[in-house]
Amino acid sequence: MPKMKTRKAAVKRFARSPRGKIKMHRPFASHKLTGKSPKRKRHLRQMGTASPKDVSRINRMISG
Predict the structure, then answer these.
(1) What residue ranges in 1-64 does DSSP mark as E strands?
(2) What is the dihedral of CA 48, 50, 51, 52, to 10 degrees?
(3) Residue 24 is part of a domain; what is its CATH number?
(4) Which residues contact 15 (CB under 8 A, 6 or more apart)?
(5) Fewer CB atoms near the end CB (10 Å): N or C, the chain?
(6) pTM of the predicted model as reported, rounded to 2 decimal places
(7) Are 24 and 48 within 8 A, CB to CB?
(8) pLDDT at 63
């Protein structure tokens, strides 16, 4: 059976934290920023964690 390939697009977007959580950039931070409050834009700059429902799927894509 051939080896599983890593999904390079997922590796560029996600990273594992030391405790095993999946870190990611928050969505909705790239355009249409005039309608968002400064507080909301400031919080969008910070890294977020992936939903627990998505963690197993993302781990499969990252590990390969």
Answers:
(1) 14-16, 22-25, 47-49
(2) -120
(3) 4.10.410.60
(4) 22, 23, 24
(5) N
(6) 0.74
(7) yes
(8) 86
Residue 64 has pLDDT above 80, yes or no: no
Q: Give the total number of structural domains in the chain.
A: 1
State the residue range of the domain holding 35.
8-63
Q: Say which residue, 22 or 20, is predicted with more confidence.
A: 22
CB of 22 closer than 8 Å to CB of 49: yes
Residue 47, pLDDT above cutoff 80: yes
* CA 28 to chain CA centroid, nearest Å: 12
Residue 16 forms part of a structural domain: yes
Nearest C-alpha neighbor of 27 from the set 56, 2, 54, 6 = 54
Q: Determine, yes or no, domain membership for 2.
A: no
Q: Which of 15, 18, 19 is nearest to 48 (CA)?
A: 15
